[in-house]
Each structure stands twice: as structure tokens, then as C-alpha cells.
């Protein structure tokens, strides 16, 4: 048994599917027995009232039949139960039960049984009050300082306080500014009622002020009649706590002072009688109920606070003294004396779990066996430690951070893409221009070896591709784990066969070490069948209008991809390389390789970066201007409202015209912001396509391994979405600067540079373009990307949050400029901004 779990002394489950709240539990000697033992009184919203007197034979026993003294069906929902001196002429304790439209006071008595079944208990109705208004809660006490009897005050749902002097109705008063009822408590020391209003402030009302205030029945009369018939109800003091209150409790463990405890949604307050804060405690969890129960030392009060994490915390003022775990979330907690056991904690959950528990620890009977002592050989331990460190180092080098396991996974994912399109397209927009948008069905199969809890399947595609459903949760399906499965979609999903073009603005040539293959074998269905089956020219038409032409040389081992837009080249180039690799694998050829020997098209790439950055700056300016116009619009509204409320009419001074003009400017700016966001989304999609192409060409150009290409992708494509707060330019600049500082550094001076911890939008893109050019230059000079611990510079697996300018010597800058002018030639500028759909392998994630 855990040390910090509440010790179960006695427990039971109340009824079947009954509901309870914080007012449904009470502990008192309701039958006025001579031993003074408390009884547990529980009422439910189903109308059942139960009285328990637990007598467990041993600790942890469940409820026995004789523990239930009385069970009565009252027919009406029980909102609250209290025990006090509610009957005139006697100081015996009676039970008050609050229903939604009725207040009943009962006498509970027991008679000694003559047989072994025990005593018999019965409940007799002393009197009842039928309420004209729906009740919410109640409180009781010696209102007005009377002795020997308790009065009852009921708060209605519409804010009326109804006071009952035992068998008779005294008066009713409406609370000022009332909206919703809050917790209600009575302070006997100050003779006042304390509640928390909808304004989130604690309010105190004197009983004398309530008694002499205007009667609630005269609320609808005129102001002059009200002033003539009684005094106005005014609040004694208020305190703004800034949140709704769950409960209020007033305690006084000595005659000198009393404290008002208020439990909020996130804070716990202790107030003096005059409303001043004695102390407050900010809670790190959501509380459910509380109870100040005793004062252990002078000037301090102990409090029980339960929360929704099944925990019960014991505080001495603001100091946490103990924490214990409960088997349920309590909505009410009480402390009493049961069966000669003092300090029993009684908790009640909303579903009827009633438990009596105590704090403390159980002694452990386990004794650790004696360990055979032996002398340690420190030399052997050092040798063994070095061998283990070497094994760990080798595993980290070969397998990365996480070691690979060969055991069978608890959950396997398999994906099957349908070879045919859906007969009826499921696309949201069926047409893009003159092209019909097709849809394809993807079947995801989950195979689990053990029972999993709440398995979630997420499917992600890069925009503008869309899914009919991307989240699946399986309730019938430990430690959270993530399993990924990648798969490819058919090329026909986003492009159609098109007419080849002889001329194009942008061209890329891919070299291979094998004889050219017929394009009909690589892309079946994208060209018409010819007589010789040797198709060396093929056209592709993307949904949206873009066209790409693929040419295969008849004499050399080269393939050319050309298009009017630079970013359109990536998808066909990538598909060509994948289809060539699959073709030669089927032929049994293992030494097939592709390469790129042309000039790196950085100029076209930089133009896309500049256009994307320009849209970001434009969006930032538009949002700032929109904020200014919104402030101006609200200021004009306030001026007009002040003019309209003024009793003396005054000219508007063209404020209405200014309001109308500002409103039109706000609408126009909002439309411009929305239009710019759409353009920014399309620009970011084109930028990602161009980035994929640049990474692919760098990998073919320098024959990079898969791990090195993955590092480039992590550096150039760190974001799935682009926002104003965190954009692509500053993130990529930080990642590339980190690579230049570590694995691609040339001197220890660069390695010693410190990177900033913040990412801010740059003033321009010159620094980013310089770093990208420098990265390509150092890769061309033999630099290699590596993140292992054996690199020359100290490595870290986490990319830094920012970067500073990397100083370069004049000699190196001149050499970079010369090499760049020879290596990266300038191409024609982009002349159109037509958006093109982008596609990449779909990724499914199950966790």
C-alpha cells in the first residue's frame, strides 16, 4: 500500500446512478444520543435521505446492513441537509432538509431493539415551509444574537434571501445587482451574511440591515414608495477576488477572532471579519471542495482541500502539511467523531461514493535481507566501466539517440492506396478552373498485439491536399508511444497528361549511369501508345494550369525537366528519380545512380524567398494599420455614446460621418489582410516546393547520404505552417547558421560564436541568402553534414533559438563571391505567380 494513500476505514456506494453535490453531506449527532457520536446524513438529487452510523469490525470493511440507520424516499430532490436547533421550545438537534420548493424540519429518534437486529430509527416531520421561489442553498445560525435556537436563511435562484424564525416566516430581501446565486454563509461574530456575487466579489450584509430594509414584496413599487416604506439594502463591505467561488466557510476556534474562508476556482482566500485579506494561496490544480477543521497552533488554521486529481491536501494556513490520494473526486468533505474514533475524514463523490478514511502510514513488515559483503576491486570496476562506455558510444553512433529494438511492436500500421480513383469525387471543391479534382481512397489497417487504451490515428498531408477525415480515436484500443507509417499517393491525383512544350524558362538536367528508359515504362498512362514503344517526350498538366515537360535523351544518359515556373520542377523531378530507382531494382541492377552536374539555381530560389518575405512584411504592416483603425473606431464609438447619453442635446460635429468612414476603412483593411494571408499561403507552398527541389539537387550534386539529406531537410523545412510570430526566414537562418558554426565551420573562431535565444523577423533576406550561398560553397569544398559527437566542433541535437552574424574575412568573402559567380549562374526571373499544388508522401501517425 502506498504511503500517501488515504487509509480506508469504512466505505459504501449509495444507490444506483444517483447524483450528489456539496450540500448533500452532513455530520452531526442528529438523534441526540447520549454518547455524542456523529452520524452521517446524506441526501441525493433522486430524493433519498440516508443516515449512517459506521461500525466496521476491522479497518477497510465495507458497509454492513446495521450501519444504515434510516433510508427514506422524500420524493423531491434534496439540495442541502443541515442539523441545528430548529424547533422552538427545545434545544434538541433537528434535521433541516432543503428541497427546490420546500423546507422541511424533521426529528430523528431511535428506540432500543428487543432482538439482535438492533435499534430502530424513525423520522418525524415537525414542520415545513412551502417556498414561493426556487431555492438554491441555505445557511443557519443565531441571527440577531438570539440564544438557544437557530434561524434559517434560504437563498433563491433569483437572488432573494428568505429568513425563517423556526416555524414562522420572518421576511425576504432581494440582493442588489443580483445575476446568479453563489455560496452563502453566516458569521455569528459580526451577525452578517457573506456571499460571492456574479461580479466575482465577496459581499457582506448585516442581518440588522436586512431586517430593516425594504420588503421583497414591494420590489415592483415606485422609488418614492420604497423610500417611504423602509431602508435601502446596502452592502457592509466587498472584496473583489477576480474569480467565481466554489464554497464559503466561516470558522472561529477562539473567541477573539473569526476567519472567512473562500475557495475560488484557482485560489484559496482567508479574510478577516472586515473583509481584509489575511492570506491567500494560489492553487496549481482545480479544487472541488474544502473544509477548515481545526487550529493546531495559535494563530493558524488547518484546512482540507480536495481537487479533481483525486488528491486531498492538508494546509496549515498556506503551508502544505500533508497530501493523500483518494479513490474518487469528492464534492463534499467533513470531519467528525465516529465510533469513538476522532478526526475521521468523510468524503462524498458526485456518483455516491461515500468513504470514511484517516491519514497516516501503515508499518511495513518487510525487512531487507542482509547482503553478502565482499571486497571491491576498483581496478576491475574501472575496466568494466570503460568497456560499458565504449559499448554505449558505439550504439549511439550507429543507431542515433534512441536504440533500435527488434522485438515485435504492440501496434502495427499498414496502408493501402487504392489503384483507382473514386467513382464520385469526395473533394470539397470539385473543380479547379476547368479541371475536375479527383479523390482516392486510402485504407489504413491497425493490428494490435495487446489491448491499447485510446489509440488515436492522425493522417497529415501537406496543403493544398485535403482529407475527408484526419483524426480517428478508438476507445477499445501505459506509456504513450508513437508509431509512424509513410506512403505515396498516385501522381494522377494532382496532374493529368498534357501537351509537351518545346520552350521553357527553367530547365534541369539529371544525369544517370544507365541507358535511357522509355518514359512510357516509367509513367504508364501519361502518354499515348506509339508504334516503337519508345517515348522520349512527355507532358504533365497540374490541376490549376501549370505545365511541365519531361524529355529523355536518345543518345546520352540524361533526362531534362523544364517548365515556366521554377517551383513546378520539383514534383516531376522527384517522381522521375523514384520511378527510375524502382525500374532498375526490378531489373536487378544494383549500381544505378543519379547525379546533377549543372549550376545550382539559387537565383530563382532567392526570388521566391524575397517574394514570400515581402508578403510577410506587407501582412505585418496591414495588421498594424488595422489595429490603429480599430482603436480609432472604438474611440469614436465612445464619443458618440457619451453624446447620446448626455441629457443636454449637443451637435455630433460630424462624428457619425467619421464613424462611417472609419468603419469602411476597417472593413477594407480586414479584406486586405485576408487577401494577403491567402497570397502568403500560396507563396509558402511554392517556397516549400522550391526548397524540396534545391535539397534534391544538392543531394545529387554532392552525392549526400540519406542522413545528410535528412539534416538538410530539417534545416530548410522546419515549419509545416508559416505565421507572423515564427516565420520561415528566421527559423531557417538560425538552423543554417548552426550548421555553419558546427560541422561546416572552418576555424575555432566560428565555433566559439554564441547564438541568440530569440527568433525575430529580420529586416531583409540578405543575411539568409548569404548563409545559403556559403553553405553550398562549403559543401562544394568537401564539407560534410554530421551531428554525431565525433565532429570537430561541439555538437548539440537541439537547434538553437536564434543566430548572430557569422563574420567572414575579406579574403574568404572574395573567394566565396568568385566561386559563387562561377558555380551559381543567374537564370531568368519568375514572371508569374500561378499557385501549383504540392504533394509529398502522406504521413500517418498513431499514438
Layout: helices, strands, pairs:
Blueprint: E1 7-13, E2 25-28, E3 39-43, E4 48-52, E5 61-62, E6 68-73, E7 80-84, E8 94-98, E9 102-111, E10 120-130, E11 135-141, E12 151-156, E13 160-165, E14 168-174, E15 184-187, E16 192-196, E17 201-206, H1 207-212, H2 223-229, E18 237-240, E19 245-251, E20 259-264, E21 267-271, E22 277-282, E23 287-294, E24 302-307, E25 311-316, E26 319-325, E27 330-338, E28 341-349, E29 353-358, H3 378-399, E30 411-417, E31 431-432, E32 435-436, E33 442-448, E34 455-460, E35 471-474, E36 483-487, E37 495-498, E38 506-512, H4 519-522, E39 537-542, E40 547-552, E41 558-563, H5 569-586, E42 594-595, H6 602-645, H7 655-702, H8 706-716, H9 728-741, H10 748-751, H11 766-780, H12 810-823, E43 842-846
Parallel strand pairs: 1-5
Antiparallel strand pairs: 1-29, 2-3, 3-4, 4-6, 7-8, 8-9, 9-10, 11-12, 12-13, 13-14, 15-16, 16-17, 17-18, 19-20, 20-21, 21-22, 23-24, 24-25, 25-26, 27-28, 28-29, 30-33, 31-32, 34-35, 34-43, 36-43, 37-39, 38-41, 38-42, 39-40, 40-41
Helix pairs in contact: 5-7, 6-7, 7-8, 9-11
Silhouette: elongated
Number of domains: 4
Number of beta-strand segments: 43
Into which percent range does the helicity of residues fall?
10-25%
Q: What is the CATH T-level topology of the largest domain?
A: Methylamine Dehydrogenase, Chain H
Task: Specify the biggest β-sheet.
Answer: 6 strands, antiparallel
Low-confidence stretches: 219-230, 401-407, 789-847
Main-sheet strand order equals 37-39-40-41-38-42
CATH class of the largest domain: Mainly Beta
Beta-strand content:
25-35%
DSSP helical segment count: 12
Distance from first to last alpha carbon: 31 Å
Radius of gyration: 39 Å
Mean pLDDT over all positions: 81
Keywords: Coiled coil
Pfam family, one: PTHB1_pf
Protein name: Bardet-Biedl syndrome 9
InterPro entries: PHTB1_N_dom (IPR028073), PTHB1 (IPR026511), PTHB1_CtH_dom (IPR055364), PTHB1_hp_dom (IPR055363), PTHB1_pf_dom (IPR055362)
